[in-house]
Amino acid sequence: MSCPEMPFDTKIKGEEALDEAAEIIRGGGLVAFPTETVYGLGADAFNEDAVESIFLAKGRPQDNPLIVHIPSKEWLPRVAKNVPEEAYLLFEKFSPGPLTIVLPKIDQLPLITTAGLQTVGIRIPNSKIAREMIARAGTPVAAPSANRSGRVSPTTAPDVYEDMAGRIPLILDGGSTDVGIESTVVTLAGELPTVLRPGAVTIEMLSEVLGKVVNHKGKVVVAEAPGMKYRHYAPVVPCVGAEDPADAAKKALSEGNAVVIGSSEFVGKAETYGCKVIDLGSTPEECMNKAFRTLRVAEKRYDFLVVEHFEGKSGYYALNNRLSKSYGGVVIRKKPR
Ligand code: TXA
Ligand code: MG
Q1: For the segment 197-245, what is each residue's pLDDT rounded down to a tens digit?
Q2: Which of 37, 105, 173, 291 is least crowded, fewest Cβ atoms below 10 Å from its Cβ?
Q3: Are 299 and 234 in contact (CB under 8 A)?
Q4: pLDDT tens, residue by residue, 36-82
């Protein structure tokens, strides 16, 4: 029996399905597709009904704007106006890649896509499948991460299937994503270039092109980055952060079927106390790449997760931003010994 909210027999297919994907987008449907950061849930950015169905499939609040994906910077005038020279410089240097630039939107772009804002976040993904799908669809593609709202972002096609089965017709499979966390979001629509969400393109890298760049700190300005006020990346089992491997191990051992997740150095020390561990790797890039995937695996095998708190550790700024949301900011602070 088919349920009205689960109308689709969701298929996972490879690049042989690019034309089919483009056809679905053109017809106002949804397609999940790979990018180098996380999988996206795409629809024609100019089709209001299609964009509305993204919000419905995700269970996402409609005051959270979507990123619009284009295949090359030649498409910029199709979504943005008054594009400053800096935007071209940034796209030149970092695109295709994990950078989203917020610019004034053209009037024709529907407000549902930008959650009522007069600006639009634009990205050129570094995935051939993604760019080819958009080019063949012939329209800019609005796409949030392809997870149910609040859940851990998907980095494989099966991750997407877990959250979206029955809700969308097609998932394009491009294997595991390279970067593993979402793009850096920088706005050029305000007084000073401002990073609204940290990612693999760091504030230092942006400063080399732009000069002064500020960070989004302190109170969240709702009109600027509505996405920031919602709970994100939450595993389905309880999760805490820990500053120190010994405390992490102690907590894990006291919780029964629990695991400590962190960098090689951190879990190496935790393991000496006899707890279960998962090693994310020894560089920020490796850890970013495995973080979300690991949370999705760990929540199925364990009843409690203890995650390394990366705050202040050089190179781990963006990863700390995501993981601290997974454990809702609950951190076991280092005890003086
Ligand atoms: O890597 C990524 O960016 C992935 C892939 C699929 O491209 N997409 C993604 O989308 O992470 P999403 O919807 O999960 O996150 C988009 C975030 C929003 O939460 C919002 O904070 C910010 O980007 N954003 C989008 N448009 C904006 C705008 N016009 N002004 C300010 N922030 C915006
Ligand atoms: Mg998301």
Answers
A1: 999 999 999 999 998 888 876 333 333 344 455 568 999 999 999 999 9
A2: 173
A3: no
A4: 999 999 999 999 999 999 999 999 877 889 999 999 999 999 999 99
CA distance 202 to 214: 11
Backbone phi and psi for residue 324, each to the nearest 5 degrees, phi listed first: -65, -25
Q: Which of 58, 103, 185, 325 to mutate to test the pocket of ligand 1 (most atoms within 8 A of CB)?
A: 185
Atom of ligand 1 nearest to the CA of 114: 29
Kind and range of the H or E run holding 140 = none
Q: Would strands 184-187 and 194-197 be described as parallel, antiparallel, or unpaired?
A: antiparallel
Look at residues 199, 222, 201, 200 and name the one whose alpha carbon lies nearest to residue 210: 201
CA distance 148 to 164: 7
* Ligand sitting nearest the alpha carbon of 96: 1
CA 170 and chain centroid, separation: 20
CATH 3.40.50.11030 domain locations along the chain: 239-332
Given CATH 3.30.1330.80, say whether it is the number of domain 239-332: no
Q: Please tell us whether the domain made up of 11-215 is placed in CATH 3.90.870.10.
A: yes
